[in-house]
Amino acid sequence: MRRTSRIIRTRRSPENHVTAPRTRRAAAALAAGVLAVSLAACGGGDDDGNSDDENKGGGETGTTVTLPKLDGASLEVAAVWTGAEQANFKKVLAEFEKRTGAKVTFVPAQDPIINFLGSKVAGGAPPDVAMLPQPGAIKQAVDKGWAKPLGAEAAKELGENYSQGWQDIGKVDGKQYGVYYKAANKSLIWYNAQVFENAGAAEPKTWDELLTTAQMVYDSGVTPFSVGGAEGWTLTDWFENVYLSQAGPEKYDQLARHEIKWTDPSVKEALTTLAEIWGKKDYVAAGALGTDFPTSVTQTFTGGDQPKAGMVYEGDFAQVNIGETKAKVGTDAKVFPFPAVGDAPPVVSGGDAAVILEDSEASQALATFLASPDAARIHAGLGGYLSPNKNVPASAYPNEVQQKIAKALVDSGDDFRFDMSDQAPQAFGGTPGKGEWKILQDFLKNPEDVAGTQAKLEADAAAAYGN
Fold first, then answer.
1. In 3D, which of 352, 395, 385 has the Cα closest to residue 84?
2. Which residue ranges does the record annotate as region Disordered (predicted)?
3. What is the pLDDT of residues 25-37, one digit of tens each?
4. CATH superfamily membership of 188-345+436-465
């Protein structure tokens, strides 16, 4: 769709209160140009052309934000992160402890985190800060009276380091509650380079080319796709990329706000397109409904040139799981943008926002730190992480693949679409075994039932949105 104006228009859903950027050109450029063909992993040279001074520089030991002394203070931070993701975040928290003297405890949370927080609040022991993965969850936390607005210092840091679009998705009723500390480019397909070479396959740019590539991989003796169907959010991500590219950003925004129904012909078209892969015999690795996301990634890059699958769709964060194998990102494990289904490639983003539940000098200081380049640069250097903070240079990331992904995200400014299911009420878009997650799992099992899937999606969406 043509971009006709520089104006970013916003509309609010009474359920989500999520700003929806309306521009498109830069978003298409992001998807098309985020990765060059055959990106090679390398060390972190500053390939963005900016000096440290231009980026409020500093590296892991640099300081760009002043924090108070908090000797004797203690904080709890809750998130659903596990494994390397949790371990790396703890290193960021350790730097905060070093600078302030505060003691920070990481509290492992379960999904959906809103339910976890509800039990903590009911027990009189909520964490001081929670990392919320959905704008809808921020809205729920505000409506329940749990979330506290950011103070002046945190808001100032956020304003200096984030585009307006990333600030707005952390707002509810015009007040800033969330710091989107962690972002994701969820429009990427990772592939086993040796499998592609054996099959004579090239990186596809369109959906039809993807289907051709999949057939070439299949003919070479390898199942084309690994799908982590045990976790419904991976399936919503598949749908959102197809739908955004095929139906366009206007329809995407309307469906995200439930202004059009899931029985709309555009949804039928997207599900029918998905079925070209999900419903193709032997195109998806066996046991997809029992395969969790980490396994869906690792099984694509283990087994030499005979892995369980040649490709796996998911965001930049898949690098964490690739790192658990012997595959080297950029050499053994390569990546291409999600192919264009319609006129332009899709650009779907997600993220995790820090939200204060217990207002104190220490919790506000942590939010300020997480909004600064300092925290993001530490985490960026550890890999498997992407920041929307525009003052974190590409050189902070450990390899060329991540440097290009990060630079493209920042360069896109406000031109992106946020994960649709994350914008929905959690009962529909963010609860295991329910709503969109469960219905798309059923569709993965039976991709022929397009009409039935649409009817179930609409019934559950109507109940969750209240319309």
1. 385
2. 1-20, 46-65
3. 333 434 444 443 3
4. Periplasmic binding protein-like II (3.40.190.10)
